[in-house]
Amino acid sequence: MNLTDRVVLITGGKRIGQVVARRLAEHGAHVAVSYRNSRVEADETAAEVRGLGRKAAVIAADVSRVSDCAAVVASTVAELGRLDVLVNMASIYEATPFDETTEIVWQRNIDINLRSAFLVSRAAVPHMRSQGGGRIINFADWLAKSGRPAYHGFLAYYTAKAGVIALTEAMALELSADQILVNAIAPGPILPPPDLSTEERDEVAKETPLGRWGGELEIAKAVCMLVKSDFITGETIRVDGGRHLR
What we know:
The protein has 8 helices and 7 strands. With about 250 residues, the protein is α/β, with parallel strands linked by helices.
């Protein structure tokens, strides 16, 4: 797919999402970003996109709500005229011990990390189908792709991200006749969480075969590659510096 004048919707427009939006705009796309609490970051992202001569839209949405999943697509089309690419980046990552994983904790992880990817995609598909095709990119996790839970306290998160991989494969098959290609990215050590100590950051880098954190741009490169490909669908690609090899 040539990105010139195509419209991309990114759910979750801060941190890595900001870099993805800028990279897509550099390749010619107009970009809509959704946010739940991070309006400032979303506005900054939109300003960067406009600074590159592209159109941008900022849309408030809580993708844990069914109605917002459809509304964010409708708002994108209303403001930018069409929808060609959906990047489902909205996610939560919270450690919760097994004995404290209540139904509420479980459902919150499923709703945001998994269900929203399906619901936003379902709303986006009719628009892509009417245009003869499109791209959907979901976000999984390198551990789920590798079949390795590895860390305690992430039962609901891991389960949801494993579901994202299954969702990606099933949607790729279901939508293949419509020329809608569906893939997923499974990030590894890309961007350290703000609360991670220097020692912890160094330990992660040491355990990664390439010996470093990847940085947001590596995810943006992977997104662009999958958007531009016309023959990759149903894949989950790890961007983890070889972390899964250990």
